[in-house]
Design goal:
Elements (H helix, E strand, L loop, with lengths): L17 H14 L10 H33 L13 H10 L5 H33 L3 H7 L7 H4 L7 H6 L14 H4 L16
Length: 203
């Protein structure tokens, strides 16, 4: 199966018949100019839905943090030197040191802080769900997620972060070819990377 939108088309070639299309596809196939596509099955779609949920949670966390930070800045409250934003020490400073005389402002602070903590807990919960889902994923899919497909740089770089499973699943954005096996002649060679297809996003 190939991507129709990526089939090379000559400028000015507007005559379209079944015969001409068949000849054009045959020539492009012989020249290796057709881009194959991979159609995800139900298991892959389900896992990608879970990743989408986590991405939405990350966006919600960012918005919640911005609301809290902007509120504190409007009130002239800034953390002491040496305390970085959104670290454990920063959240402890907000909880213990930031208070307001006006009850309305205190309630606003507590609500914003609750949303930040709720978003963080939501992300942690989804990370755990993704980690469990990866264990049940098909072997070839796990190979990409775990970076064992020859150690491709694009996949290996995602494995260095704390949420490497989540980021590696997002390697579907690179349309990694999951439906092929590494040829035995190359599987033991250092520096061999399985082919990646076009860079169009899938998620």
């Amino acid at each position: 199966m190939v991507a129709p939108t990526l089939v090379p088309v000559k400028s000015g070639d507007r005559v379209k018949t079944d015969r001409r299309d068949a000849l054009k596809l045959a020539r492009n196939y012989r020249a290796g100019e057709l881009t194959p596509v991979w159609v995800p099955d139900a298991a892959h779609e389900a896992l990608r839905d879970l990743v989408r949920a986590r991405e939405a949670a990350k966006k919600d966390e960012l918005r919640a943090r911005h609301r809290l930070n902007k509120f504190l800045l409007r009130q002239g409250r800034r953390p002491p030197m040496g305390i970085k934003l959104w670290t454990i020490k920063y959240l402890e400073w907000v909880k213990q040191e930031v208070h307001f005389e006006q009850m309305a402002q205190e309630a606003t602070l507590l609500d914003y802080l609750h949303e930040v903590e709720h978003a963080a807990a939501r992300i942690a919960r989804l990370d755990g769900a993704i980690a469990e889902a990866v264990k049940l994923a098909p072997p070839k899919m796990r190979a990409v997620i775990e970076g064992s497909y020859g150690g491709h740089p694009a996949l290996r770089s995602t494995a260095s972060s704390g949420s490497r499973s989540v980021l590696a699943i997002s390697s579907f954005r690179f349309r990694a070819r999951l439906d092929v096996s590494i040829p035995s002649a190359f599987s033991g060679q250092r520096g061999y990377y399985p082919p990646l297809l076009d860079m169009a996003p899938l998620i």
